Amino acid sequence: MAVREPTLDTRTPVAPETGVAAGAAIRQSSLWQDAWRRYVRNRGALAAAVVFVLIVLYSFLIPGFWIVPGIWTDLIHDIDPYGVDFSQAYQGASLAHPFGTDQFGRDLFARAALGGQVSIGIGFAATLVILVVAIVYGGIAGFAGGALDNVLMRFLDALYGLPFLPFAIITLQIVGTVNFMTMVLALSVVSWFTDARVVRGQVITLKENDYVRAARAVGARWYRVLGRHILPNTLGILIISMFLSLPGVVLGEAFISFIGLGINPPDASWGAMANDGRDAYRTHPLVLAVPSLFIAALVLCANFIADGLRDALDPRTRET
Question: In whole angstroms, what separates CA 268 from the centre of its chain?
Fold first, then answer.
């Protein structure tokens, strides 16, 4: 009886974990690609990002289409968001006025979009100023270390005693003029303290890495090490800080405008619109509800986005 000799299986084994053939090249991905995949798995953060983008698009695109004469003439009449028509005061929601009108007969749908331009614009501009100051202050303190770091941090501890909203109001009164730029200045002048501490801590951690020591060993100047090797690696934490700072700035602008110290009429902001509607909110709730809902939606979405970015950029936070 002939004995059959065993044959060798020349097929490449497949790794059970990944389903990829052993020895095959693994597809490489960057940090941002991995972070994006982790972010889109977070349904709450993804939904918040979609709503956030829709609010921004509504604020910056709708006025151009809704107000321009002739585009919506088949559905509504031409709208002047600054025109006063007391015969149209406090109209309810309708096809002509989806959010109704205010006490001056102005369309709330168009004014809410214009108010969003001001509120969101001030929020992003002030947040950008906060991040720039925080990067410069915190980066110098963390990179220099020693006595300079100690002096800068003790000075920052002293500044922490300044209250946010009262000092912002005082700044506006000192300047004497309330406009877009002065609102940005007032809301950012005492809002960068926490972000500066975050940047400092990140820089202190990064400057001990091997690639920073290698750059120093080959003779790289301090400004190149800081600008080329350290600060770019703080981009993730800076994006998270931006979305964490944005709600506070938007709420600060809304509060200052709500008490009548913000953007001057007839220009609109969500806080100023809420101030216009507080006297008639019982009989005409839409005048107050529309800007309040936009403020609440923007603030909640920014917080959800920041939470999702934190989990996506640093997966270890989810484990802890």
Answer: 21
In-domain check, residue 296: yes
Tell me the residue range of the domain where 122 lies.
50-63+105-319
What is the tens place of the pLDDT at every residue in 108-154? 888 888 889 889 999 999 999 999 999 899 888 888 888 888 999 99
Residue 38: inside a domain: no
Backbone torsion region of residue 66, taken as left when φ is above 0, otherwise alpha when ψ lies between -120 and 50, otherwise beta: alpha
Cβ atoms of 73 and 66 within 8 Å: the answer is no
Q: How many domains does the structure of the chain reveal?
A: 1
- The answer to pTM > 0.85 is no
Q: Does residue 314 belong to any structural domain of this protein? A: yes
> Is 293 within the bounds of a domain?
yes
Q: What is the tens place of the pLDDT at every residue in 148-201?
A: 889 999 998 888 878 888 888 888 888 888 888 999 999 998 888 888 998 898
What CATH number did the domain enclosing 246 receive? 1.10.3720.10
